[in-house]
UniProtKB/TrEMBL annotation, chain A:
It comes from the Bacteria. This is Aspartate carbamoyltransferase. The lineage of its organism: Bacteria, Pseudomonadati, Pseudomonadota, Alphaproteobacteria, Acetobacterales. Pathway: Pyrimidine metabolism; UMP biosynthesis via de novo pathway; (S)-dihydroorotate from bicarbonate: step 2/3. NCBIfam families: asp_carb_tr, PRK00856.1. Residues 159-304 form the Aspartate/ornithine carbamoyltransferase Asp/Orn-binding domain. The keyword tRNA processing does not apply. Residues 10-151 form the Aspartate/ornithine carbamoyltransferase carbamoyl-P binding domain. Coiled coil: none annotated. Keywords: Pyrimidine biosynthesis, Transferase. It comes from Asaia krungthepensis NRIC 0535. Its EC number is 2.1.3.2.
TrEMBL record, chain B:
Residues 297-425 form the Amidohydrolase domain. Keywords: Pyrimidine biosynthesis, Zinc. This is Dihydroorotase. The lineage of its organism: Bacteria, Pseudomonadati, Pseudomonadota, Alphaproteobacteria, Acetobacterales. Pfam families: Amidohydro_3, DHOase. It comes from Asaia krungthepensis NRIC 0535. Residues 53-241 form the Dihydroorotase catalytic domain. SUPFAM superfamilies: Composite domain of metallo-dependent hydrolases (SSF51338), Metallo-dependent hydrolases (SSF51556).
Length: 313, 430
């Protein structure tokens, strides 16, 4: 599937991507991270290009991150937030594609509640499509920014043990991270109750499943927590937020089981006191704010690279 | 009406398993017997049809077809459905009742039968709604619907969710010796699901339906059929576990029957890869082991019929993100061609395959169609089992184009179809 997921220079997912395909994104992003900090980034890499952020689902932080990335490279960036009420109408998505073609947009960033929606759009638009999160399927730029953050602190991904905790089953962040981390040689543990970490998750690659935090976190290099949606309680997947925190929350006692200095990560927005204790989120081990910073750098790298591959073809 | 003599054909009579070069006579639109090739007694003025060695069998009987009319004519009309049917050699089809309105009024049953005759191409055997509006609640007027010509009762694509209600429906149906047809899927396990549970759906991030949703409902309903003594049929069975339960129930002498559809023995879940919505079906395409179990159940007789499970949708119903796209695929045109893969793969002998798509489903529905008996309507299908062709969505007869077999190469193609002795497909069809 890797070939088709990247054909025509889209970034629809990380499934099937090799180390060789992932590394150039990370290297370029590392470079952009340095340049951004020194405020010397060349602001013309995307001059004259149009980037459209099309969000069918609310997400202020991811949209802002892509917007900033595009603007730092000199692109014209337009945000379109599509009312959720019309998402289920169907024509919307393909009609939108026709509209975008007419606007001659170069790069299209798509967030959608349905798995596969960016892939469907990619079939119909002439722009390069970047998946900014589709349903439970993938969120490739999040996994890339997580990888970059880890590399900056630990130097490599190869051989690390990464525990992904919480609502793994519904998480596109988890799926993209599993594909990326296993490709880069990390050992991935999925930690949570069986209702949130179903057995079928084991089929996603060489991952191990843990239903207790103690075995899941022990000697981990990285502890990644995921947001628990309130609706999981209503759907009967977990009884309450406080029970979830009691058994699956990342607190300092559990974090002490991981390697000394293990990184604490969260894709945001956090529910403090549900999946993560406040003191852990704010501790010296937390790299959560840095993840946000690396997000901009990674998105600059993705937009730049796709744009250049477009020009080359 | 011109009399016909089919010559130089490999004649298959699925009722007695006859499979040999023969002549077949048609008089006044009715079958007038078979004899050896080159036999005397050519009726005067009869038209001679040279089959050139192709197979001649009864017109196929498809026991599970959703039409679209009334209510969803933008997907398919009765006329366009009939054109698709005869292109696949189907001359009799049982129409599911979950149209708009649902077929829960005697007048609607008569209307469907009449509209079928009007096409001149096919006979429509209407299913009656099992509950009013196919809503799974109030019992429909089963007796009156039956008097009007309903052949069996079902809510079509919905299972009766409530256990007690299902028990009462079966008990009542038993009283009038009516066949109940159930969509075998636990509704609460299936709700919101788009693909069979497993590695592929997990990777694609699609909401899942466990294969066990089928076995759970089948187990419940077999037990209810046993309690009530009713005749119960499961449509489009797709899992090994569900089939094992049906096999056991049959061994215990219960009046349980079932059918399956070509996607479930010729495709597996991999067909939905890359979010191909034409392969989104209900029940969903399953794992390879389930496909193999369906083949085994066809071979050992657990499965009583093969139906197309034809479900027409418009392109706009399918060009959507996978989870939002409508479930179902067309199947009339490809029923025989895909079915023949079972013969090519050695799963079934040809005469048995034809029986599963003609006289056997007809018998379940109390219809006389699907035989070569003398005096029966001359509904016939002539096909060449060796012609290769490629299924192409967009090029299919009829209005709906949503075939899950798009791009598949099939071996075996219908050359001609006759309804009441009139050629309705192929050659000089009107």
């Amino acid at each position: 599937m890797a070939e088709t997921l990247t054909r025509r220079h889209h970034l629809l997912g990380l499934e099937g991507m090799s180390t060789e395909e992932i590394t150039p994104y990370l290297d370029l992003a590392a470079n952009y991270a340095l340049l951004s900090r020194s405020r010397t980034a060349p602001r013309d890499a995307l001059r004259g290009r149009t980037v459209i952020n099309m969000f069918f689902e609310d997400s202020t932080r991811t949209r802002t991150s892509f917007e900033l990335a595009g603007k730092r490279l000199g692109a014209d960036v337009i945000n379109m937030t599509v009312a959720t009420s019309s998402v289920n109408k169907g024509e919307t998505l393909l009609d939108t594609a026709a509209t975008l073609n007419a606007m001659r947009c170069d790069l299209l960033v798509v967030r959608h509640a349905a798995s596969g929606a960016p892939a469907l759009l990619a079939q119909k638009v002439e722009a390069s499509v970047v998946n900014a999160g589709d349903g439970m399927h993938e969120h490739p730029t999040q996994a890339l920014l997580d990888a970059l953050t880890i590399k900056r602190h630990l130097g490599t991904l190869n051989g690390l043990t990464v525990a992904i905790c919480g609502d793994v089953g519904h998480s596109r962040v988890a799926r993209s991270n599993i594909h990326l981390l296993t490709a880069m040689g990390s050992k991935v543990r999925l930690v949570g109750p069986p209702t949130l970490v179903p057995a079928a998750m084991a089929s996603l690659g060489s991952v191990s499943i843990h239903h207790d935090m103690e075995s899941g976190l022990r000697d981990a290099d990285v502890v990644m927590t995921l947001r628990l949606q309130r609706e999981r309680m209503g759907a009967g997947l977990v009884p309450s937020a406080r029970e979830f925190f009691r058994f699956y929350g990342v607190d300092s006692r559990r974090l002490a089981l991981a390697k000394p200095g293990a990184l604490v990560m969260h894709p945001g927005p956090m529910n403090r006191g549900v999946e993560i204790a406040s003191d852990v989120a704010d501790s010296a081990q937390s790299v959560i704010q840095e993840q946000v910073e690396m997000g901009v750098a990674v998105r600059m790298a993705v937009l730049d690279r796709l744009s250049r591959m477009r020009t080359a073809s | 009406m011109t009399d016909l003599v089919f010559e130089n054909v490999r004649l298959i009579d699925p009722v007695d398993g006859h499979d040999a070069p023969s002549r077949l006579l048609v008089r006044e639109g009715r079958l007038a017997g078979r004899d050896k090739p080159g036999a005397e007694g050519m009726p005067e003025g009869a038209q001679r049809i040279d089959g050139k060695g192709a197979v001649l069998c009864p017109g196929l009987v498809d026991m599970r077809v959703a039409i679209g009319e009334p209510g969803f004519e933008y997907r398919e009309t009765i006329a366009s459905c009939a054109r698709a049917a005869v292109s696949g050699g189907v001359t009799t089809l049982a129409a599911l009742p979950n149209s708009k309105p649902a077929i829960d009024e005697p007048a609607l049953v008569r209307l469907l039968r009449g509209r079928g005759e009007e096409t001149g191409l096919v006979s429509i055997l209407p299913y009656g709604a099992l509950t009013k509006g196919c809503k799974g609640e109030e019992m429909a007027e089963l007796g009156m619907l039956r008097e009007a010509g309903a052949v069996a009762f079902t809510d079509g694509i919905h299972a009766i969710a409530d256990t007690k209600r299902m028990r009462l429906l079966l008990a009542y149906a038993r009283g009038i010796d009516a066949l109940v047809v159930q969509h075998p899927e636990d509704p609460s396990l299936a709700k919101g699901g788009a693909a069979t549970a497993g590695a592929l759906a997990t990777r694609m991030g699609l909401p899942q339906i466990p294969a066990a949703a089928e076995a759970i409902l089948i187990a419940r309903d077999i037990r209810l059929a046993e309690m009530t003594g009713a005749r119960l049929h499961f449509g489009h069975v797709s899992t090994g576990e569900g089939l094992a339960l049906i096999r056991q129930a049959k061994a215990r002498g219960l009046a349980i029957t079932c059918d399956t559809a070509p996607p479930y023995f010729a495709l597996n879940e991999e067909a939905i890869g890359e979010f191909r919505t034409y392969a989104k079906l209900s029940p969903p395409l399953r794992a390879e082991k389930d496909r193999l179990a369906v083949c085994a159940a066809l071979a050992d007789g657990t499965i009583d019929a093969i139906a197309s499970d034809h479900a027409p949708w418009d392109a706009d119903d399918k060009r959507l993100p996978f989870a939002q796209a409508s479930a179902g695929g067309t199947g009339l045109t490809t029923l025989l061609g895909v079915g023949l893969s079972l013969v090519q793969d050695g799963v079934l002998p040809l005469a048995r395959l034809i029986a599963l798509m003609s006289c056997d489903p007809a018998r379940l529905l109390g219809s006389e169609a699907g035989t070569l008996n003398e005096g029966a309507s001359a509904d016939l299908c002539l096909f060449d089992p060796d012609i290769d062709w490629v299924v192409e969505a967009g090029e299919q007869p009829g209005r709906a184009q949503n075939t899950p077999f798009d791009g598949r190469r099939l071996k075996g193609r219908v050359l001609g179809t006759w309804k009441n002795g009139q050629r309705v497909f192929g050659g000089e069809a009107a």
